[in-house]
């Protein structure tokens, strides 16, 4: 029988997810300052807002009707997804990983999470599977893989910090 995590483990998962997402956001800020286009989180909020009204897919999320508070909803969703991915890592590796994190599982989970934008969010927002409807699909896919690999490193580094604080 699988035991449920205690409050300290849940807190470690939440903190790790938040830390990893923030680490990725620092990376995205760096890219943006280098002139590399990055995701507009308002579009994530717009997509989620439309989900609540029964619309999953859009021809172009940029052309969809704006949702009140979409930028905030997008950021909240972004961090909630980061926490969920941290929980996925712990579900795969076991609760002990939160006390003794290792880099390889974190990076692998980070890389696997790229499936969410490539095969769910991008198609639903009108960009096609694996950004196939964008002008530079391969570049966009590679950028997504890089971003999620950075997220994976963020999972590991955040878990190290959380584990050190918990000792």
From TrEMBL:
Stretches that traverse the bilayer: 7-29, 73-97, 103-124, 145-165
Transmembrane among keywords: yes
Keyword Membrane: yes
UniProt KW keywords: Membrane, Transmembrane, Transmembrane helix
Pfam families according to UniProt: DUF2938
Name under which the protein is recorded: DUF2938 domain-containing protein
């Amino acid at each position: 029988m699988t035991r449920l995590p205690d409050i300290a483990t849940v807190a470690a998962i939440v903190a790790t997810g938040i830390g990893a997402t923030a680490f990725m956001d620092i990376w995205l800020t760096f890219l943006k300052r280098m002139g590399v286009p990055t995701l507009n989180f308002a579009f994530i909020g717009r997509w989620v807002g439309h989900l609540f009204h029964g619309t999953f897919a859009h021809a172009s999320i940029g052309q969809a009707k704006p949702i009140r508070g979409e930028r905030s909803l997008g950021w909240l969703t972004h961090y909630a997804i980061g926490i969920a991915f941290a929980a996925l890592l712990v579900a795969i590796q076991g609760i002990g990983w939160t006390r003794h994190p290792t880099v390889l599982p974190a990076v692998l989970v980070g890389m696997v999470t790229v499936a969410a934008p490539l095969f769910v969010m991008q198609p639903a927002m009108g960009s096609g599977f694996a950004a196939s409807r964008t002008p530079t699909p391969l570049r966009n896919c590679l950028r997504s893989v890089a971003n999620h690999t950075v997220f994976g490193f963020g999972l590991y580094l955040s878990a190290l910090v959380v584990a050190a604080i918990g000792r």
